[in-house]
Each structure stands twice: as C-alpha cells, then as structure tokens.
Amino acid sequence: MREKATTLYLGPQHPGITGNMMVKLKVEGDTIQSASTHVGYLHRGFEKLMERRNWLQSFTILCRICVPEPDPNEENFARAVESIEGREVPERAKWIRAMVLELARIGTYLLWFAGQSGSAGLYTMGQWSIGDRDYILDLFEELTGGRIYHMYIWPGGVRRDLPKGFKDKVLQTMDYLEKRLVQYDKLMFDNTIFQKRAKGIGWIDPAKAIEWGVVGAPLRAAGIASDVRKDDPYEIYDKLDFELGHATTSDVWGRSQVRRFEIEQSINMVRQIMDKMPEGEYYNRIPNPMKWEVPPGEAYVKTESARGEFGFYVVSDGSNKPRRVHVKGPAYVHAVTLLEDLLKGANISDVSFIMNSLGTCPPEIER
To answer: Is the peptide bond before 12 cis (omega within 30 degrees of 0)?
Structure first.
C-alpha cells in the first residue's frame, strides 16, 4: 500500500541547516520524493547596495555575503578595484593577505567540522572544533579589531601591519591545531558510526560535476583536482608549497576527507608565509575615500574560498561608487540545483548531513 505524501519544512531553526536556509520536503514515510530550497531574507541585495555606496563603504556590506568566511569577499573586491585602477600592492601586503585567507579557510573548516559531525549526532566534535575556531577568531580580533567582520583587505594592501608578537601567536596556534587534528581523527574521522553515515551518501556524478558547476571540496572529492590557487595563482600562492585534497568516492565521506587534508595543508601554508614574509610597506594609500573616483573600466577576479571558486565582476564608470557589482559564488549551484537533486530518494535523517557536506552560504543566492 502506497503511503500518503507529506510536506515537511526543515529549517531554518534546525541546527544542521546551513545558515538561514529552509528546505521544503515532500516525503513518503521517511523517504524524500522532492525538495525545494528557500534561502530566506536575512542578508540580501548586496550587489545593489554596493552600487549605492562609495568604493570603501562597500566593504561594510560585502563581508556579510558569507559570514563564516568574509575575507575572500574583501580579497575579490580589492583586487578588482586594483585591476581597474592599476594600483600596485606592496609585496608584504600580498603575503599578509594570503595569511588572512588561509586562517579564514581553517576557521571555516573548523566550523564545517561542527556542522557535519553534529548532523551525525557527534556533538562533542562540534564543541571541540567551535572552541578551537575561537583561537582563529582571537587572531583576527588582534589583527583587525573584529572577530567576524574584518574590513582588513582593501584596495592598495591591508589596513594595518601585523601587531608586535603576532607571528609567534600565529605559529603557536598552528602547532596547537595540528595536534588537535589527531584527536579529531579519533573522535570523528576514524569513528565507525560517522563512516557508515557518510559513505555512499550524497553521491555526485563525477561525469557531470563540471557541467553542473560544482567547485571546491565537492569537486575535488569527485576526483577532479581543481583549485584557483593552483590553476590561476593570485597574491603569492605560486610561491607556496602545498597539495590539494583528493578523493574519488564523490560522497559525503570523500568531501570530509578532502577538507580534513586541506586544513592540514593550510596550517603548513601559514607557517611558510610567516617564515618567508618580507619586510616593507603594507599599504599603497588610496585618496580620500569620500572623493575617491576610480577610472572607467571593468575587472573579473576570483579566489579559492573554503566553499570553492568564488568570483567578483566589478564595473566602474569613473564615479565615486561602483557602476555594477556581480558576485559569482558556488552557493546557488550547491544549495539549490545540486542539493535538490541529491535529496531525491534520500532519507530524512540525511538532509542536513548532505547539505553541510556541500558547503554553502545562503546570502550568496539572495545577493
């Protein structure tokens, strides 16, 4: 006898839901027949808001496009403006920017550990990784004055130089986190329950991954080694020695393995940066922000965020504010097109588990 279809609304109050998303599910029993993503109205309309503010005021807005990892937004917008204006960036600033981006990646992955493990009922792991993420936020607070929103990377370089003693604190934090990874393995990655929940779940067809626009850890877990830091190096990434995470299972387990490996690589990159960072200027000063007019032109730049390839298209008409800003992030593909497809036929208990494995920031969709 066929069971009666029921409509369920999962999130945004559900702790396993990514940000302010909600998923409308049609289920029969505990099997999902169809899914529809709704991203809510928390942070939205960034592109038009930025077009109504001057070039520097936009930085207070663009950070909110992805709250857990705001720094790639700053990086993209800054490099786009620099490209249009032809403004040079001091060498030291490039190294500091790369350090900030890798610290942000580590912090984002620690947050992901919490969401992924919590969706499997491993709440201790979430308490550990969120607590350890605070050490990264402590570094950001000392460097930028803010724990979450930094407004630190901007046209011409970075807002301030490294504080006295900051290098030692960064290296101490990296040493601590590297030791913690061993404990993470015992608690989560070597855990039979987590492995059984993750293996074979949320499978993405590798043959269609690029066609669909999948990027980041989900793409590398499908066996495709694509990363902007390697494919189109920016800042000083061509001077760093690092490897990409790689898997072939293309499921939640593979994506977990990729992120576990890459947090270790980021720790090593931060160490390289602190060791090789040159002395010198950190900022090529811009004009008075209220009177600063960027010459006419356009630029498209991209970075490798923790969520994957992330780009900004910026147009200037010669005035004191952007003429057009367009954000190209992975969230729409991962959180709408891909998620809705992967949830068909899945069990209700795997909804947040699959969603977290894709790594999305909903405000990218309502931009």
So the answer is: yes
Q: In terms of pTM, does the model score above 0.90?
A: yes
Say whether pLDDT at 14 is over 70: no
The answer to whether 306 touches 361, Cβ cutoff 8 Å, is no
CB 41 within 8 A of CB 358: no
Residue 55 domain-assigned (yes or no): yes
Q: What angle do CA 140, 144, 145 make, to 5 degrees?
A: 95
165 token code pair? 């003693």
User: How many C-beta neighbours within 10 Å does residue 103 have?
Assistant: 24
Q: Looking at the domain assignment, is residue 213 inside a domain?
A: yes
Q: What angle separates helix 351-358 from helix 252-276, to the nearest 10 degrees?
A: 30
CA dist 340 and 72 (Å) reads: 26
Q: What are phi and psi of 227, to 5 degrees?
A: -160, 125
Does any domain span residue 1?
no
Compute φ and ψ for 81, nearest 5 degrees: -65, -40
Mean pLDDT confidence for 60-66 = 86
